Amino acid sequence: MALHTDTAIYKATYSLCQLVTQLVSNMPRNYKADFGAELRRRCMGLVMRVYEANTTDERADILRKMRQEVEAVNLALRLSVDLRLISRGQYAQAIALTDSVGKQATGWQKHSERALDAGLPRQTGQRAYQSGRAAGPQAHRQAQQGYRRQQSE
Which residue of 30, 39, 48, 94 has the lowest C-beta tally within 10 Å? Predict the structure, then answer.
């Protein structure tokens, strides 16, 4: 599996974290300390969930929790635009990122659940070079075909 920093979901959560940090810095002082700090903390939590999910075999539960946290961030952003703490354009940027994160987390969760149902979880200690991923897409595909043949025998 790739490093967590190379994944599209990590890049989207990190971009969301950057955007929210910029938005919170422009909020009025009375909202910045509690509401804004909580929003930033939740976005940092999303980045950490990506790391956790990428480094464990129990990723379906982590991703399920991450999806709940994405909804909490969505709610906080909607409240921010309703209270006029951020503009509608800024809200649209943030919602596009949370939508992307939510879709990727859902897809990753479904993939993880299917892999668990099929009994093909990633083996502990399996690294990218063992699966051929480090050598490129064609080598990775050949390694995966070999792995599937091995599993079917």
Answer: 30
